[in-house]
Design goal:
Elements (H helix, E strand, L loop, with lengths): L1 E5 L2 H16 L6 E4 L6 H13 L8 E4 L1 E3 L10 H10 L9 E2 L8 H14 L5 E4 L21 E4 L2 H7 L12 E4 L2 H4 L4 E6 L5 H9 L17 E6 L9 H9 L10
Parallel strand pairs: 1-10, 2-3, 2-6, 3-5, 6-9, 9-10
Antiparallel strand pairs: 4-8, 7-8
Helix pairs in contact: 1-2
Keywords: Allosteric enzyme, Carbohydrate metabolism, Hydrolase
Pathway: Amino-sugar metabolism; N-acetylneuraminate degradation; D-fructose 6-phosphate from N-acetylneuraminate: step 5/5
InterPro entries: Glc/Gal-6P_isomerase, Glucosamine6P_isomerase, Glucosamine6P_isomerase_CS, NagB/RpiA_transferase-like
C-alpha cells in the first residue's frame, strides 16, 4: 500500500488524478470503478478539468458504481445512480449508457447482484477502482465483519453508517437500511485501487486501515494485500498515522509522485 499525504483537498485531487490518468493511458476501453461520497469529489473535479483540457477522454470508458441503496427510486436525487450521474458521468463527459449501477429495485436482488459481477468480468475487469472509506472502516458498503471473499450482494447498513448518511436526506425522510454493494472480493480484483480521504473525522479509520492489522473489523484494511493500492490523504485524514513522517519522506524522495508504485 502506497500512502501519499497532501497539504489540502485540492492537492489530494491532483495527485490522485495524476495516477488515474497514468494507469488508464493508452487503454482502448478503460474500465473505471466509481465510488460516491464526499472524499472522491476532489478527484472527480480534477479529472473533469483534465478532460476539458484534453489530457484524457472518458467518452469511450465503461463505469461500474460500487453500490446502490435497496428500495430507493432510481430517479430519486439521492440514489447513487443519480449521484454518479451528477458528480461523475456529466462532468467527465462519459456515455451514460456505458455506466452501470447495481439494481437496488430488482425483484430478485441476489440474481441482480450476481449479474453485476458477471458484467464486470465481461467488461474485462475494472482497471482503476476509486474508493472512499467510511468512519467505521467500510469500503463500498462492506460493513465491519464483511467477508474478504465476498461478492456483490445485499448488505444491511449499520446504524453508524445510516447516521453518517442521514445528513444527505431531508429531515424525517427514511434513510435506507440496506444496499447492494460490490463485495471485498470483487473490489480486490480491480487492477489498481485509488482511495481518496479527506477530513479529521476519517483519521481513526485511516489509521486502522494503514497501520492496524488486516481484520474484517476494518474492511478497508484488506487493501494492504493489493499489489497496486494508492491511498491519498489530506493532513487532517492523516493526523492519527504514527508513520506519517515516513510516508512524507517516501513521497519527497521521489521527483514525481505519479511514478511511485510502477
Amino acid at each position: 500500500m502506497e500512502v501519499v499525504i497532501c497539504s489540502d483537498e485540492r492537492q489530494v485531487g491532483e495527485i490522485a488524478a495524476d495516477r488515474v490518468i497514468d494507469w488508464l493511458f493508452g487503454l482502448p476501453t478503460p474500465v473505471l470503478g466509481l465510488a460516491t461520497g464526499s472524499s472522491p469529489i476532489a478527484l472527480y473535479e480534477e479529472l473533469a478539468r483534465r478532460a476539458v483540457l484534453g489530457d484524457i477522454d472518458f467518452s469511450h470508458a465503461i463505469g461500474f458504481a460500487l453500490d446502490e441503496y435497496v428500495g430507493i427510486d432510481p430517479e430519486h436525487e439521492l440514489s447513487y445512480k443519480q449521484t454518479i450521474r451528477r458528480t461523475v458521468v456529466e462532468p467527465l463527459r462519459m456515455n451514460p449508457a456505458r455506466v452501470h449501477v447495481p439494481d437496488g429495485s430488482a425483484e430478485d436482488l441476489a440474481a441482480a447482484a450476481a449479474e453485476y459481477d458477471r458484467a464486470i468480468k465481461d467488461a474485462g475487469g475494472v482497471d482503476v477502482q476509486v474508493l472512499g472509506i467510511g468512519s467505521n472502516g467500510h469500503i463500498g458498503f462492506n460493513e465491519p465483519t464483511s467477508s474478504f471473499a465476498s461478492r456483490t450482494r445485499v448488505k444491511t447498513l449499520t446504524q453508524r453508517t445510516r447516521d453518517d448518511n442521514a445528513r444527505f436526506f431531508a429531515e424525517g425522510e427514511q434513510v435506507p437500511t440496506h444496499c447492494v454493494t460490490q463485495g471485498l472480493g470483487t473490489i480486490m480484483e480491480a487492477k489498481h485501487l485509488v482511495m481518496v480521504v479527506t477530513g479529521e473525522h476519517k483519521a481513526d479509520a485511516v489509521e486502522a486501515m494503514v497501520e492496524g492489522p488486516v481484520s474484517a473489523m476494518c474492511p478497508a484494511s484488506i487493501l494492504q494485500f493489493h499489489p497496486s493500492a494508492l491511498v491519498v490523504l489530506d493532513e487532517a485524514a492523516a493526523s492519527k498515522l504514527h508513520y506519517a513522517d515516513y510516508f512524507r519522506h517516501i513521497a519527497a524522495s521521489k521527483p514525481d509522485v505519479a511514478e511511485q508504485g510502477r
